[in-house]
């Protein structure tokens, strides 16, 4: 019943906005030929936004014939109407707006200090308008970078570009990217791009900034000095030791005039002299892109720490394992045969399954292998794990095999998929804990809240390789 009253109240305030009854604010929104006069009520605006409380104070206020005058040439009439409708009745509709318009709306509500909408619009963009990042990645990055309150959208854009750098590096506007933004991107360890491609992209950007041709044989001393100055902030961020010898010779060494001579000496030594290691205090290797639709790079340090039974998680740069995708059910076939064809005789593996219709992930670690026909395998290092929220690694729970029941840690059979203790799948979508006649088997892994039976939407198996 109370919800009905709230709906009526919202409707009445919307009518007040539309009829303009008793308005005392005139807003001129838009610029030049697109200026429109909009009417509103100062009391409502002040209650809903600190910006308007300041705007209508004695210090700021412009008044004419008893009405406040506000001029906002940087906000279109259409967007201002959307904002005012939200202020009056708490309703907002974004589905008819394109990504660039929604971004402009977000910038406007940030200026007007409407906190609820700042969070809501960011979430809407992330969930519904991800394609807009491809349209103008440079402009979007720069717009978001300028607003400290757009944290969620900023992190999303960076993550997307790091996962697929070609969104930015292959765009026509990449050469116009501001230097601080390019520096921030190249600094990231999760930029999923070959190091030589990053170097070539940096050079392309640099030569465009200086309006120079990419031909060292035609550079003057002044040209070299200009390039050195522009590149100076970026050189420590390039992982030169991860560039292959042939690429180093043909695509890096030819630019030796604009690189620190000490760096050139160290790289030549590294490539020519056997068993020479990279110099200390250089940027670490970037993290390889994780080939997964279920987890991201944030899960990997946690998995590695569980494997090594560490009390705290590894740092991303210190993970001592590689995780190589062996099997994905929706790609390779959702059956036991496909599972064994891809995963048998591969040594240690970790598997992750998504429970259908939820945000929950179930998984486990097998330090042995999956080959065998009707055989139990003993280990004290295997474990099961459970995420109640796939995006929140702090929601994880882990269950190491009971040392006294280690003989029932892993079961391998050609007609089964995952089988650990009394938890198993037949290779298809129905997974469960079963009640066996052996109580030792049933208690091989302590309970951590994994549902007794569930349907799996998709699952992946990764080979765990010691670096």
TrEMBL record:
Annotated BTB domain residues: 23-96
Name this polypeptide is given: BTB domain-containing protein
InterPro entries, A to Z: BTB-POZ/Galectin-3-binding, BTB/POZ_dom, SKP1/BTB/POZ_sf, TLDc_dom
Organism: Rhizophagus clarus
Record-linked SUPFAM superfamilies: POZ domain
Domain TLDc as annotated: residue spans: 293-465
SMART domains from the UniProt entry: BTB, TLDc
Cited PROSITE patterns: BTB (PS50097), TLDC (PS51886)
Pfam families linked: BTB, TLD
């Amino acid at each position: 019943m109370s919800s009905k009253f709230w709906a009526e109240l919202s409707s009445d305030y919307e009518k007040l906005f539309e009829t303009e009854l008793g308005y005392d604010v005139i807003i001129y929104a838009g610029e030049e030929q697109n200026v429109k006069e909009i009417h509103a009520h100062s009391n409502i605006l002040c209650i809903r936004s600190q910006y308007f409380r300041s705007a209508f104070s004695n210090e700021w206020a412009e008044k004419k014939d008893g009405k406040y005058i506000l001029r906002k040439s940087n906000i279109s009439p259409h967007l201002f109407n959307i904002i005012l409708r939200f202020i009056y009745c708490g309703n907002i509709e974004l589905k008819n707006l394109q990504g660039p318009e929604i971004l402009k709306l977000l910038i406007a509500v940030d200026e007007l200090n409407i906190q609820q909408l700042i969070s809501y619009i960011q979430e809407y963009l992330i969930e519904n308008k991800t394609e807009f990042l491809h349209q103008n990645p440079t402009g979007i990055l720069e717009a978001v970078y300028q607003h400290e309150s757009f944290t969620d959208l900023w992190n999303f854009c960076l993550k997307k570009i790091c996962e697929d750098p070609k969104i930015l590096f292959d765009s026509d506007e990449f050469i116009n990217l501001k230097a601080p933004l390019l520096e921030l991107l190249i600094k990231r360890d999760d930029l999923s791009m070959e190091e030589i491609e990053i170097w070539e992209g940096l050079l392309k950007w640099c030569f465009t900034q200086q309006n120079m041709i990419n031909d060292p044989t035609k550079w003057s001393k002044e040209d070299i000095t200009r390039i050195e100055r522009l590149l100076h902030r970026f050189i420590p961020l390039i992982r030169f030791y991860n560039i292959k010898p042939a690429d180093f010779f043909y695509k890096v060494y030819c630019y030796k005039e604009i690189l620190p001579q000490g760096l050139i000496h160290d790289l030549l030594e590294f490539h020519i002299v056997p068993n020479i290691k990279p110099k200390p205090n250089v940027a670490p290797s970037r993290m390889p892109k994780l080939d997964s639709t279920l987890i991201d790079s944030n899960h990997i340090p946690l998995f590695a720490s569980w494997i090594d039974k560490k009390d705290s998680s590894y740092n991303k740069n210190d993970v001592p394992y590689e995780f190589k995708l062996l099997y994905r059910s929706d790609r390779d076939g959702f059956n036991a045969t496909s599972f064994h064809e891809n995963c048998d005789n591969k040594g240690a593996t970790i598997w992750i399954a998504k429970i259908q219709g939820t945000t929950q992930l179930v998984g486990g670690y097998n330090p042995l292998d999956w080959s065998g026909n009707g055989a139990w395998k003993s280990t004290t290092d295997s474990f099961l794990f459970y995420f109640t929220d796939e995006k929140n690694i702090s929601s994880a729970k882990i269950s190491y095999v009971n040392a006294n029941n280690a003989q029932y840690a892993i079961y391998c059979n050609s007609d089964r998929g995952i089988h650990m203790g009394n938890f198993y799948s037949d290779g298809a979508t129905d997974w469960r804990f079963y009640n066996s006649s052996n109580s030792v088997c049933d208690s091989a892994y302590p309970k951590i809240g994994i549902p007794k039976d569930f349907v799996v939407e998709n699952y992946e198996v990764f080979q765990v390789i010691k670096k």
